[in-house]
Amino acid sequence: MKSIVILISGRGSNMDAIIDAELPLEIRAVISNRPLAKGLESAAQRGVPAIALDHKAFATREEFDTELSRVIDQFRPDYIVLAGFMRILSAGFIARYPNRIINIHPSLLPALPGLHTHEEALKAGLKIHGATVHFVTPELDHGPIIIQATVPVLSTDTPATLGERVLAAEHKIYPQALRWLATDRLELSASGVVRIQHLDVLETDKTTTLFVLKE
Ligand code: GRF
Question: What is the pLDDT of residues 43-52, one digit of tens each?
Answer without folding.
Answer: 999 999 999 9
